[in-house]
Design brief:
Elements lengths: L1 H109 L1
Length: 111
């Protein structure tokens, strides 16, 4: 009888120990699942942030390309204006030289 009581007591002790270990295991699993969920959320946030940064970079690049095209067009226009002014001035100088040369030839002929 004493042996049976000792076995029953040992069985109760083992059941309490098993219940305690199961409770600890369940808590560890719950904490792990919470950690996994937090990591998934952090990963999703990081992906969203990376996507937003990529979109901002793309938009910035497009704006810079547009600005570059505007500057190139403006430069080409200004260069065209300068070339036209240069050609006009060159033509006026040539005209004055021809006129001066004609007058000089006229004076030489008169002499």
């Amino acid at each position: 009888e004493e042996h049976r009581l000792a076995l029953e007591a040992r069985e109760v002790d083992l059941k309490l120990i098993a219940d305690h270990h199961n409770a600890e295991l369940a808590e560890a699993i719950r904490e792990h699942e919470e950690h996994v969920q937090l990591m998934k959320e952090a990963h999703a946030d990081a992906q969203a942030t990376a996507l937003e940064h990529a979109m901002n970079l793309e938009q910035g690049h497009a704006e810079l390309m547009h600005r570059e095209a505007d500057l190139r067009a403006s430069f080409a226009s200004q260069l065209g204006d300068l070339k036209a002014a240069h050609d006009d001035e060159k033509s006026q100088i040539e005209s004055r030289l021809v006129k001066a040369h004609s007058m000089e030839l006229g004076r030489m002929a008169a002499d």
